[in-house]
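Sat 14:20. Reprocessing the chain from the morning session after the first attempt stalled halfway. Input below, unchanged.
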Amino acid sequence: IFQKTTEGAANAGQLIEIIQEKGASWVLIDNHNFDPVFLEKVGKTEARVIFLDDDATLKKYPVDILLNQNIFAKSAMYEGKTQARLLLGNYYALLRPKFLNKSAWSRKHPSVATKLLVTFGGADPLHLSQNFLENYGQLTHDNILRKMSIRLIVGQMNSNFQVIKDLSKKLPNCRVLRGVTNMQDHMRWSDIALSSGGSTVWELSFYETPMLLMPVSVPEEKIGEHMVASKAAIMIKTSKKVNFQNVFIKLSAMIKDKKHRSSLGIKAGALVDGNGALRVIHAMQSFKNLSIDQK
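Finished this time. C-alpha cells:
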C-alpha cells in the first residue's frame, strides 16, 4: 500500500524501486494526490495496480482495478476515464480485520440512550471536537445530554488535543481518548455515535450504530446524503461556524426515541456485511492467469 503523505509531487521512481525490490505482483495506491502521470509510470512495471479513489476527480485512471467504496460511487463517474475493472459502492467497503469478530455480540437499544461516542476523524480540520466540548459545557445541568456518558475519540493528527483534554476536565462524564487501537470496542459500547462522514461510517454501520453525521468535505457530505436517503443516519451539514445547538436538539430526540434509533441501526447494518475485503481479493485473483502483456 503506497500513500502520499507529504506535499509536492509524488515520486513514482521510489515506488517502482520498492515494487522491484519486493517482487510485488500488486500495488495498492491510496490517496487522491496521485496524478495520472504517476499512475502510468507505475503501471509500466510488472505489478498490477489497484487504486483507492473517493471522488473521480482525475482526468484518467490508468490502473487495473479502481476501488471506490463510497455509497454514492457509480460507473458513470468514471465513464471515458478508465478501462479498469470498477469495484464501486459500499458492497466493497473495507473493514479492518479486528472489526469483523462480532459473532457473540448484537446491538441492544435501551429505552433511553445513555452512551455517546464522538469522533471527528484523524485531523478534525474544523476543530469539531473542541467546539463540541465548548458548547456541551454550556448546557444546563438538567439537560438530558448532561446525563450521558461520553467517549470522545481524538485522532493522532489533531493539533488541539491539549485544549480538548483541558476542556474535558470540567466534564466528569466525558472521557477523551487519543490514538485508540480498539475502536470497535467503543462502537459496541455506544448507544449513539456523533461522527464525521469518512470511512468510520462503514465501521459504525457494521455495528448497527445509530449515528448523527457531520461531514467535513464534499465526499463526506455525499456519503451523508446517501445515508440519509437510505434512512440509515441523520446528517447536519457543517461549516466553519457549526450550530451545535441544532446538533444537541437532534441528539436529544435520538436519546429518547428507541424506535428511531433501532430503525437507523438496522438500516445502517444492512449496508455493510463485512465481506468487502474478500470481494476485492476475489477481483484481484481474477487477474491471476493474465500475462503482463494483457494488462
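The radius of gyration is 21 Å.
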